[in-house]
Each structure stands twice: as structure tokens, then as C-alpha cells.
TrEMBL record:
Keyword Methyltransferase: no
GO molecular-function terms, A-Z: magnesium ion binding; phosphatase activity
Domain of life from the UniProt record: Bacteria
Keywords: Hydrolase
Gene Ontology CC annotations of this record: cytosol
The name this protein goes by in its record: Hydroxymethylpyrimidine pyrophosphatase-like HAD family hydrolase
Lineage of source species: Bacteria, Bacillati, Actinomycetota, Actinomycetes, Pseudonocardiales
SUPFAM superfamilies: HAD-like (SSF56784)
Pfam families: Hydrolase_3
Length: 286
């Protein structure tokens, strides 16, 4: 496994608001409502640090900063890549990348499930695949290279799409192979994602918190899927979206509405009240 060098803690500063994208601030079309975009923008303008923490690749995350018209941090690929996104051109400067050697795993999978579609995401900020994925699925540029080439690459993430569209069978096979860092794709595309062992949104967010010098009690998070569980457990104040899995709701400070109802405002709204300090905001403190 490789990663960037750890960053020294900064001087204590402000609040850190960490938001999942799909199903949390953005609907199934990838659109952020006007009310949610305005709230995020106002918080950013008032000095709150905004992090978009997502399973998306960096390439697919940057346009959301454009929708919001803010600078901020991007924790992508479920924690394997962190970047700072700034300026009108939405320049993305990578801060940290965590990779793992997927050669042995891909070699075994190629023998066991040769009909599966596999994508390796790497620090080149795109995907290399053994065959074409359906248009739009990977949300980023891809290149077909075949099984043998895939097994030579250091991976930020490996995505496996079941030939029969049943992700549960893939999860069972991966557990039998000793892979415990896999999770279902949150958009329901019948695949699983494998990330570097020990990496989650929470591990990357803790590094961002230390970099910015934000106090642990001034951390806020909102998400809607099981890949947000570590993030909501890590944050001092957390909201699970309405309709999210029961396991996620169990670790959250409170449950908000659905994305269609702008449920994330249950977290953002109280923070916009200047009369409250970060520690007093009623955002689901545990």
C-alpha cells in the first residue's frame, strides 16, 4: 500500500462539514437543489470548511464544486484520494492517494469469474478496464487494456461488475477470498468496489481535519448509504438521510428527510444560524 506522507496538524480553525454527494446533496440526476446549493455556499462564504466525501472518482466530483460554486476539499473513491478544489477553473490539487497491489486478487478473479467486467482506478485519474462498461457507469475516462495489464497496476479502487448483475454473489466470493474491504455500489449497478484495506471516508476526513486544525467537536457529516457509516460515526454531529439503511441511521445523531425533500438541510440549517456556536448547533450531536 502506498500513500502520501502524513500532514502536520494545522492551527485550530472553524467547522468542518462533510457531505456525501449522490443521494445526499444530489438527486438521481446528479442535480443539487437550489436550497441546498445556497446553504452550502453561504456556509463556505462564512468560513466553514466544506468537504465532499464520495464514492465518485475525482473527475466526477469536480463538476459538483462547479454546481455549488465553492472551493473545498474532495474525499473521493471512498477515501482513497483526497484533493483540494479551487478557483473558477476548479483546479484539483491531489493531497493524498492511497493505493494497493491488486495483482494477486485480479489473477484469482480472472480465473474464477472471467466474464466479469473489471475496472481499476488509479492515480492517473481514470479507469483501466478489461472490457467496456455501459456508458456513464464509471463517471470518468476509461481505457480497455485486458486482464493481464490490469494485474500490473497499483489501484486506488477495483470495481467488479457481475455478469449476471447480482452483487451479493460477488460479495460472497470476495469474502471467501479473504477480501474484507469491499462494498456494494451505492447506485445499484450490480457491482462491488474494493478499496485499500483500512481506508474509508473517515480515515481521509480525519487527515483533512488535522490538516486544517479543526477541533474534533466541530465536525459535521451527512450521508445516505453504508459507505457513509464510518464517516457518520467519526463526526461529532451527524445526520443520516431519510430512507437510508437502518444500520446507518443507528450510528447517526439524527435522521433527516430524503434527498427529494432536501433532507441535508437538517444538518446545514442550524449551522447557518449565527447565534449558535459549532458546539451548540442542533445537528445531531452524539
Amino acid at each position: 500500500m502506498t500513500s502520501a506522507q502524513p500532514t502536520a496538524p494545522g492551527v485550530a480553525s472553524g467547522r468542518l462539514v462533510c457531505l456525501d454527494i449522490d443521494g445526499t446533496i444530489a438527486d438521481s440526476n446528479g442535480t443539487v437543489s437550489g436550497a441546498v446549493a445556497t446553504a452550502i455556499r453561504e456556509l463556505s462564504d462564512r468560513g466553514t470548511h466544506i468537504v465532499l466525501a464520495t464514492g465518485r472518482s475525482l473527475v466526477a466530483t469536480v463538476p459538483v464544486f462547479d454546481q455549488l460554486d465553492i472551493d473545498g476539499y474532495a474525499v473521493c473513491s471512498n477515501g482513497a484520494l483526497t484533493a483540494r478544489v479551487t478557483g473558477p477553473s476548479r483546479r484539483a490539487d491531489v493531497i493524498e492517494v492511497v493505493t494497493f497491489d491488486s495483482a494477486a486478487l485480479l489473477g484469482r478473479l480472472g480465473a474464477l469469474i472471467p466474464d466479469a467486467s473489471v475496472a481499476v482506478e488509479g492515480s492517473w485519474l481514470g479507469f483501466r478496464v478489461n472490457r467496456e462498461f455501459p456508458p456513464g457507469d464509471l463517471m470518468g475516462p476509461s481505457e480497455v487494456v485486458g486482464w493481464a495489464r490490469l494485474a500490473t497496476l497499483d489501484a486506488i479502487r477495483v470495481t467488479i461488475r457481475a455478469a449476471n448483475g447480482v452483487a451479493e454473489e460477488l460479495m460472497t466470493l470476495l469474502r471467501e477470498l479473504g477480501v474484507h474491504s469491499a462494498g456494494y455500489d451505492v447506485l445499484g449497478r450490480g457491482w462491488v468496489d474494493i478499496t485499500p484495506p483500512g481506508v474509508s471516508k473517515a480515515t481521509a476526513l480525519e487527515n483533512v481535519r488535522r490538516l486544517l486544525g479543526v477541533e474534533a467537536e466541530a465536525t459535521y457529516a451527512c450521508g445516505d448509504q453504508l459507505n457513509d457509516m464510518e464517516m457518520l460515526s467519526w463526526a461529532a454531529h451527524s445526520v443520516a438521510m431519510g430512507g437510508s439503511p437502518p444500520g446507518l441511521q443507528a450510528v447517526a445523531g439524527r435522521v433527516g428527510g430524503s434527498v427529494e425533500d432536501d433532507g441535508v438541510l437538517a444538518l446545514l440549517g442550524p449551522l447557518l444560524d449565527d447565534s449558535r456556536s459549532p458546539g451548540d448547533a442542533a445537528c445531531g450531536a452524539r
